[in-house]
Amino acid sequence: MYVAKEHLVHRLAKMAGLRRCTVDVDDAGTVMSVWAPKDKLPAADDAAEATKKEAKRDAGRLSVVLIHGFAGDGIFTWVLQVGALANHYDVYVPDLLFFGGSTSGDARRTPAFQAECVAAALRRLGVERCAAVGFSYGGFVAFRMAEAHPGLVAAVVCTGSLPSMPRSTNEAMLRRLGAASFAELLLPDDVAGLRSLFAAGAYGKWSRWFPDFVLKDYLELMIFNRKERAELLEGIVVSDKDAAAAPSFQQDILLLWGENDSMFTMELANKLKEQLGEKASLRSISKAGHLVMLERPRVFSRCLREFLQQQQQPRTTAAASEVKLELLNETTTI
């Protein structure tokens, strides 16, 4: 698994023009690991400086921030999307705190603090405006970024997540999944638990074909910082009263869902679209579960690009795309 990640996943990211860097975001030892466009990183020599000057010609390109969930770190989650997006957008893939190479000495474990750290890292990398794409736990973070930093976040794409996790919804999900807690489900300590996690997240039965040694390697490589991650899971749950006071988002929002998601179901997706109002559109992808970006990567990337293209259009062309926008604002299934 380590060899696959280093030599395949990282190679694909580098082929898409991304490089990994670390960003200090505060004085408490908080460090964010981020895969970023190589031509947007600080120049180390004259040749790199020339590359950066060349990149300024593309200064109008939209930045896209891909925020992962609990199943893996940033680039492992989004490797099948970076190649599809990097030719048209500046793609940034952060590791959230206590995943990948990101860490912090701060005691806060909320999506809001994760959002502040991602926003700080992006600004230090020169990002002024972006679309935030959040999967599962990353969706909570993307919504918090959009709420706290409307000047930074121009649009939100949410897949398999919510703006907040009401306690009643949390308890209903656990009953449906047959788990005592999300820590039990999302932080497995053996191969059987990891198989159960993949089975819950996938539509197909592909996870059952992984040999035990691959899953053991995955546990060692991906499931660490267990105490801190368990605290992150506790930090997403809020009272039903607090969840009802949801913010009114300024951004256009795409809810991009796996039609067969057994964790965050289509019922939750439809309720969320109704709650968010006319600024939100919902698209569902058939034959895909919670891990929709891995199960149907080409369809997922196409839906994502179509939405992002609309966000990049000048306001003066909005009238020309009015019909297309109206169609997207309806619930569609692919």
From TrEMBL:
Residues of the AB hydrolase-1 domain: 64-297
SUPFAM superfamilies (alphabetical): alpha/beta-Hydrolases
Protein name: AB hydrolase-1 domain-containing protein
InterPro entries the record matches: AB_hydrolase_1 (IPR000073), AB_hydrolase_fold (IPR029058), Meta-cleavage_hydrolase (IPR052370)
Species in which this protein is naturally found: Urochloa decumbens
